[in-house]
Amino acid sequence: MSEFDLIDVIRKHCAIARDDVRVGIGDDAAVLAVPAHHQLAVSTDTLVSGVHFPEATEAADIGWKSLAVNLSDLAAMGATPAWATLALTLPSSDRAWVENFCGGFASLAREFKLALVGGDTTQGPLTITVTVHGFVPNDMALLRNGARVGDFVFVTGTLGDAAGGLRLMGSDEPRTDLAQELVQRLNRPTPRVAQGLVLRGRARSCIDVSDGLLADLGHICTASGVGAEIDVDALPMSSTLSAGFSRDDRRNLQLSGGDDYELCFTASDDAATELLGDLARSGCGATRIGRIIEESGVRVVDAAGNAVAVARRGWEHFA
Amino acid sequence: MSEFDLIDVIRKHCAIARDDVRVGIGDDAAVLAVPAHHQLAVSTDTLVSGVHFPEATEAADIGWKSLAVNLSDLAAMGATPAWATLALTLPSSDRAWVENFCGGFASLAREFKLALVGGDTTQGPLTITVTVHGFVPNDMALLRNGARVGDFVFVTGTLGDAAGGLRLMGSDEPRTDLAQELVQRLNRPTPRVAQGLVLRGRARSCIDVSDGLLADLGHICTASGVGAEIDVDALPMSSTLSAGFSRDDRRNLQLSGGDDYELCFTASDDAATELLGDLARSGCGATRIGRIIEESGVRVVDAAGNAVAVARRGWEHFA
Asked: Which residue ranges make up each domain of chain B?
């Protein structure tokens, strides 16, 4: 299959009609219209084979995940997804692989009426870079730098499942149904787009949990010039995770495991009750896990208030 | 150097203050304002080490080229560059390499007041994906599909130099000053942004010559439902290229060599004279090389009107 056949396959799967796409795939650049009184939110994430996903990962899961991790960034800004570009570097031109990849990518794109508007296909080691574009009403983006002392800290969904799935994928034990559920959370994360929209104008700060809770909440604290104290026993946990791991293992997965793509946010006491109700109605509730304090850094305590030691604070390239 | 140190180095080199960048590098997404009555032009190009540039290429040249090839796409749309994101996949965290890369990237970015607004740094085989954003007044973008029978075909600058440079890089002969000039055209292409702005609203169709003249003019013809006839003896040629290669070699480099990043465009007879004058005044003139005809495909003739056989029509991945 030639490069141009490849582009045809991608276009057929992923180009969705949208009025604001004036020129889509097929010219030197896409031509796009941003709605009046809105700003553009733009984010880029790369997945490298063997680094961001195990080499044995199914093409459809890679396609899904390459878009999901980017949509998660838009969710964390409170942005409505609109367009994406896809830079796909492939070792060889394998039609079945590309069709499966596009199947995963497109099934998530359709959920959000997101149009693929351009990209590049090149030959080389498997690497996928997606750039997503979304809209926020002027000056309404959710930022990292708005946390204030006294805010409560919240997180959507459950934590640690994806990292648990990754650990089970590396083990020699036979796959159980429980393991399958966790691996699914690793391969097919759900970007919390609807929840980001609920939070817009109401949360004081927000980030998505991609590198691990401690690392990502740490970014909020640094950007806001504050610290945080979180209660490890309050961290939301799936029954699958609690069934599969010891307490200490589970705590580490929840605190430092990456790839959850939940939203971590802070809000004032006043706003919290109504916000939690609206989030639950949006399809994914949130849990209060701590509070913002003056002292810098992220402290971890247990339910009794005792400090908890942390082995590793989060994923970092070149660490 | 950690991932976050790397990001600091990149930010220091490449983040330029612009009023329309409301949130730049450092949050989950950039927040950007598109001017009223303008559309957004978006393009993505990937460079893979050993495919798009020889592995021995200097980091600064790779930085320059990774932005230049993308700016060339904006030029072909008649767009004014504004912002870019950079997805940088590196085998190791080498501060000197990254600083040199950023030096090359930033020296070109500054020419166009282009701000780096986000990106991703990951570990893996050397791969660079840049996504650029520019502005065009509503419905004024230069497209590929507007060529009409009777239009003249033009190209800016000279053709074949970059492909000549690539061939000389692969040879064992000692580097001459002439070779050095051609290699410079390969490593540091000049995106024809100013020329794209001159063409806006005046050329009928436009594309940048990245894969080779025949391939790229072929895209205009396919999109426009027309054909073209070009005169190989009219193709603009640098004195360096003519000094270094035989006639047949030179013709092949000019017709099928990639990486020139000149603009190929069509315009009506009426518009042509004034357009050529304005282009020359913009700092890079253009040459008439043929005309648009009804019969599909791109025919090549010599000055006497005889058909010229072509060995290879252009670069294609997975070909």
From this structure: 3-137, 152-301
User: In whole angstroms, what is the distance from residue B244 CA to residue A300 CA?
Assistant: 69
Within 13 Å, how many C-alpha atoms sit on residue B226's CB side? Answer: 23
CA neighbor of B164 nearest in space, from B156, B152, B176, B149:
B176
How far apart are the CA of A317 and the nearest CA of chain B, in angstroms?
5
- Our CA-based measurement puts residue A177 at a distance from the nearest CA of chain B, in whole angstroms, of 32
Q: Which residues of B touch A18 (CB under 8 A)?
A: none
- Residues B231-242: tens digit of each pLDDT: 999 999 999 999
- Chain A to chain B, count of Cβ pairs less than 8 Å apart? 228
Contacts of B32 in chain A (CB under 8 A): 39-42
* Residue reference for tokens 């290669």: B245
DSSP labels for chain A?
--HHHHHHHHHHHH----TTEEE-BTBSSEEE-PPTTEEEEEEEEEEEBTTTB-TT--HHHHHHHHHHHHHHHHHHHTPEEEEEEEEEEESS--HHHHHHHHHHHHHHHHHTTPEEEEEEEEESS-EEEEEEEEEEETT----STT--TT-EEEEES-SSHHHHHHHHHHS-SPPPHHHHHHHHHHHS----HHHHHHHTTT-SEEEE-SS-HHHHHHHHHHHHT-EEEEEGGGS---HHHHHHS-HHHHHHHHHH------EEEEE-HHHHHHHHHHHHHTT--EEEEEEEESSSEEEEE-TTS-B---S-----TT-
In Å, how far is A82's CA from the nearest CA of chain B? 13
| B residues 127-146 closer than 8 Å to A (CB) | 127, 129, 131-134, 136, 138-139, 141, 143-145
Is B107 part of the contact surface with chain A (CB cutoff 8 Å)?
Answer: no
Beta bridge partners of A130: A45, A86
Instruction: Please tell me if the domain spanning B3-137 has the same topology as the one spanning B152-301.
Output: no
d(CA A291, CA A227): 9
Neighbours of B221 (CB within 10 A): 23
Please give the CATH topology (third level) of the domain spanning A3-137: 60s Ribosomal Protein L30; Chain: A; (3.30.1330)
Output b/e per residue, B101-110; b: 16+ Cβ within 10 A: bbebbbebbe
Res B314: pLDDT: 63
Taking residue B98's Cβ as centre, other Cβ atoms within 10 Å add up to 22
Instruction: Tell me which of 1.10.10.10, 3.90.650.10, 1.10.443.10, 3.30.470.20 is the CATH number of domain A152-301.
Output: 3.90.650.10
Pull the structure tokens for residue B40: 């957004």
ipTM of this complex prediction, to 2 decimal places: 0.95
**Could you tell me which of A289, A141, A169 has the C-alpha nearest to residue A229?**
A289
For residue B83, give the chain A residue with the closest CA: A42
pLDDT in tens, A7-66: 899 999 887 899 999 999 999 999 999 999 999 999 999 999 998 898 889 999 999 999
Spatial contact of B291 and B150, defined as CB atoms under 8 Å apart: yes
pTM, 2 dp: 0.95
Q: Do A120 and B44 count as a contact with CB atoms less than 8 A apart? A: yes
